Amino acid sequence: MNVTFSDPIFQRHPITKKNRFIDMWKEESTRRPTRYELLAEPALMFLVLGAAYYLYNNSDELNTFLDNYYSTSEIFSTEKPFSCKVCGLRTTGMHHIVEHMRIHTGEKPHKCPYCDDSFAHKSALVKHVRTHTGEKPYICDECGRAFTQSGMLKSHQMTHTGEKPFKCDTCDATFARKTALRLHSRTHTGEKPFECEYCKKCFSSRSSLKKHVRTHTGEKPHKCAHCEKAFAQKGQLDRHILIHTGEKPYTCEICGVSYRHESTLVEHKRTHTGEKPFSCDVCKATFTSKKALRTHARTHTGEKPYVCTQCGARFVQSGGLKRHQLTHTGEKPFSCATCGARFRDNSALTVHNRTHTGERPYKCTVCGKGFVTSSSLNAHLRTRSNDSRAE
Fold first, then answer.
1. What is the pTM of this model?
2. In whole angstroms, what is the distance from residue 236 CA to residue 234 CA?
């Protein structure tokens, strides 16, 4: 195998101090470094090549020298002489083994200056720090969108080309990223290799585990620049920021109502289509959202996961707990714009406002009488039913 002066090895590592390299070469010439030393110490490899580069005037002389002093094929060998004593993984350099061993030892020497996260590899720290600084050095030539990692840019570029080179062997689904395929494959195998050290619950991805762990630690690293709130997940922060900006980018094309979140728009559209894709396994009742189904399921299980820290009262929904807590604080945050009357919850204010507007939205289908609340209408219907039976 021949080396030329145009070889990328010289382009990537330009050598500018000629005399220093020649002097160092003479000092090292008393002992020929082994192939393993060259592979383990890239700097030594470049010392050999760098000195030869300056001592010889053309590629032929360079390769003649290298073949005489050291087999060029050995310098550029693809053999992997270094192996991990724990799992047997083989690599070309000892420095790879040092980094790899951190998987087994759990060592994470590279600490983030902005938060408490630490990493096994410096490259992982560099990528993480960009989540704090906002730096996105990788820019798409097609649309100008910027990314924190080169791999994310490459995956994004495939959205322009439509390329999805990674195919699932089980269901033929295709993906732009190999990592996406790997995660998808676990939906078939059921593999969940990431275990929570606190509750032993397992997850299919490291990112899912990381988010879950914060429910135990209470860590909220994503801080709002507009207020004091902090969030466990970046997506939660992104959604929260829309409250400050007032932006509602998702608009229903049927009725024109706009929403902050795409998921809310999807649920809203079902009020037009009548679609209820989420079905209860117990009573077969159907719902427009997974959240509504989850809440309904508690009527069967009796689960009340929201607990008042003041009195121990339990609730099916978080909203019920929040309204209850106001009975302890005495707070009435909802104020009538007409008379100043205050209420603990918005629904009570809505009902109160009808005393000013005269609105009676609940109509009896029998006699046409209107009522301020649905409970008043139901009471009216019961009296009519009782009267009918008396007759």
1. 0.41
2. 5
